Amino acid sequence: MTESSSKKLDMQTRIVQSEDNITPGFASFSVPVARASTVVFPDLASMRSLVWSDDSKWRYGLHGTPTTMALMQRLAAIEGGEYALLQPSGLAAISNVYFGLVKSGDHVLIPDNAYGPNRDHADWLVEDFGIEVTYYDPMIGAAIADLIRANTKLIWLEAPGSVTMEVQDVPAIAAVARAKGIVTAIDNTYSAGLAFKPFDHGVDISVQALTKYQSGGSDILMGATIMRDVELHKKLKRARMRLGVGVSSDDASLVLRSLSSMKLRYEAHDRAAFELATWLKTRSEVSAVLHPAIADCPGHEIFKRDFKGGAGGLFSIVFDKRYTAAQVDAFVEALDLFSIGWSWGGSHSLAMPYDVRSMRTASQWPHDGVLVRCYIGLEEVGDLRADIEAALAKAFA
Ligand SMILES: *Cc1c(COP(=O)(O)O)cnc(C)c1O
What we know:
With 397 residues, this protein is of the alpha/beta class. Helices cover 36% and strands 15% of the residues. The strands form two sheets. It has a seven-stranded mixed sheet with strand order 1-7-6-5-4-2-3, sandwiched between helices. It has a four-stranded antiparallel sheet with strand order 8-9-11-10, with helices on one face. 44% of the residues are buried. Pyridoxal-5'-phosphate binds at residues 89-91, 115, 162, 187, 189, 209, 211-212, 221, 223, 343.
């Protein structure tokens, strides 16, 4: 619309066709929120020349905007990947991996300690989509080779598992998979991509629930898949397009806003969580502290070898078997500063009891006591300790 033509137009038309969203000469630190369903082409030739796999051209809001692209690039940079895709939740990112890589008749390997909804998603693929799944002992290491079949297409990893915290030997499993041409995907949410770099250990795809540390506010749901390989990126991108999943630029801008402070927050969560976990280890009520930096945790030596930059705010404690599930429930409810809720990565501390035996099918759970997962937020650590002490006294008196 030229200036002279705009003068003749009705007010309603001028409001709709306003071009004052373009502000030359204005610069700031934030990435602008580019809202779009429709992306406008200068002419039909530009529209007709579009190739779905070409990331350098805008196509439609669902496929990306300057805001979501900025977030994708930063997420890839954190883990040393080349490409990232955004999905509307961490679980949608997991689903994108399945639909991008496996079809009926294929076989998938999943660690027994995997994120619960991943297991549930896999069970659905088995029941309704003709896919075969085998759950494996997370500590299996190179012996994963014995479980690989001719039709194995995908191996999931998760290190540490986000409830029971076993640290897998990722490089050993990835090496076996690579030698057989099988794609590996790790749910790397625990480390936020900061403390563990999956591509340096031979993994093909990293999945992040940005809902956690990247968002940092317990107020956004988002996920990402990150990879180095261009062909894998194309496969996942095409599946994502066909599934019709995308994220809003508003949500992406909120994650971008939090991303610059993520490393500092992760380190603060890590310091406080390690301090509380170490103290809990001295308590007679507690039989094991499953924190990757503490020797009770299966894979502690692997954690020391492969993780650089801490464990963040998440760990679990196992209570002595003399306490009943009802007593442990009473402990969780007696906590004042720890809320009861799923997810983590925000500023508020959380606690949640789990019945681990009911969550496993492929490996023996060695503990008789009840497990409580703790997420340590950004409250003052002394206050949190006093709160736990008071709850222990109240529930186990
Ligand atoms: C939270 C979480 C997810 C899923 O993220 P949502 O955005 O809540 O769907 C996936 N994996 C792990 C390990 C998680 O903790």
